[in-house]
Structure formats: structure tokens, C-alpha cells
Amino acid sequence: MAKYAVSDLDRTFSALADPTRRAVLVRLKNKPGLSVSELARPFSLKLPGMTKHLDVLSDAGLITRTKTGRTVAVNLSAAPMREAIAWLNRYERFWTVSLDRLAVLVEEDGEQ
Amino acid sequence: MAKYAVSDLDRTFSALADPTRRAVLVRLKNKPGLSVSELARPFSLKLPGMTKHLDVLSDAGLITRTKTGRTVAVNLSAAPMREAIAWLNRYERFWTVSLDRLAVLVEEDGEQ
Fold it and tell me: Which of A56-60, B68-72, B100-104 has the largest mean confidence?
């Protein structure tokens, strides 16, 4: 019997399964060090709502938060995302081959 | 204000956030067309438990199920996984650069 605990990969994929959280990562990539209120603004989210999303991203290790005085600067963190990419890329060959095969089948079908 | 509906990407990452479901995808990559009971066996899962996981993978478009008589053959499906890979790869440059920079810092630190 295969047994699993909640893994880093579970937390990473779970954190990525929300459009607001993915959009936060995209914004942080372009503008590192944004504050929580700057991150909340485009979503019309109140601070507690954004803080909850940041908690999920932080638990997954995808961001770091650094407090200076009363401001929290948020930055991306690299390692967990790389683990997720590595997991998916192991299967990329399958997905690529499948789509190539599909393209060949469609072409063959068109020639008949 | 940015508004989002539940997207394909949400469903894909959410489906990937479970170790049993990831293991099912790995097994199907190596052995396409396994039946539901063959998939359930290594996890000591009952059929309804495995069926629930397969429902999630199927809703995310990651697998197809084909019924022949009383047997259901399960196969991988490529497109949604490719979308997830594409999303992550857009950020790969950031993660790679960050880790390279970290390696340089560690090296510099070791030289002092």
C-alpha cells in the first residue's frame, strides 16, 4: 500500500489552483517587494482577504514577507515552483508526443 | 477590478494537488488503458474512492474513460497538462535566475 503525507508538491499545486494567487505571483514577478495593500488593490480585496491568499502562498513557500516598520514587502521564492515544474516536465514528453500523434492522425484523415 | 471564473487552470492545478491523483497519472503514463480496479489496487482504495479521484481528473480533462462491456479503460489526456506546463514555464526564467544568484552568493560567502 502506498502512503503519502501532505507534501510540498500538494501545497504548491493547491496554492496555484486559484486565479487570484496566480495573478499575485505574476505581479510579484514584474514588481518585487510590493506591499500587501498594493497587491490587494487591483482585486478590490480588503486586506484580510489578501492576507489569507498570502498565507496560502507563504505556507507553500512560494513567497516571503519582510516587515519593515509598518510595511510588509512581499517577494517571490523560487524552490517550490521549480519542484512543480520538474514534476510536470517529467511528463512533458508524453503530452508532446500525444499531440504530435494527434496532428499526424488528423493529417492522415485529411488525405483520405 | 480583475474578475475570474473557475478556469481550466484552476481545475488542473487542483487535480494535481493530491498525491494519489498524481500517482494515478504516473501509472497511466507507464501503462495506458488500466482499469479502475487495477488503478485502485496499489492504494488499497475501494472502487468508489478511486472513482472519486478519477472524477476529479476527468473534470480537469487529464484523463479519458472508455467503457467496453463491464470494463472501464482509463487513459491520459494531453491538453490541460500542457496548459499548466506553459503557465509554469513562463516563470521558469525567474526561478532559475534566482537559484543561480543564490549559488553565486553562497560561493562568494565561502570565499571570504
Answer: A56-60
What is the C-alpha separation between B91 and B93, in angstroms, rounded?
5
Asked if A13 lies within 8 A of B9 by C-beta distance, the reply is no
Rounded distance, CA B94 to CA A30, Å?
Answer: 10
* Helix or strand (DSSP H, E) at B91: none
Q: b/e string for A89-100 if b means 16 or more Cβ within 10 A? A: eebeebbeebee
Q: Which chain A residues have a beta carbon less than 8 Å from that of B99?
A: 78-79, 82
Domain-located, residue B47: yes
- ipTM at complex level: 0.73
In this complex, do B76 and A94 lie within 8 Å of one another by their Cβ atoms?
yes
Separation between Cα atoms, residue A108 and residue A90, nearest integer Å: 29
Number of domains in chain A: 1
What is the mean pLDDT of the segment spanning A65-71? 92
Contacts of A95 in chain B (CB under 8 A): 78-79, 81-82, 85
Residues in B closer than 8 angstroms to A9, CB to CB, are 19, 22
CATH code, domain carrying A57: 1.10.10.10
pLDDT band at A93 (very low <50, low <70, confident <90, very high): low
In-domain check, residue B90? yes
Are the beta carbons of B92 and A78 separated by less than 8 Å? no
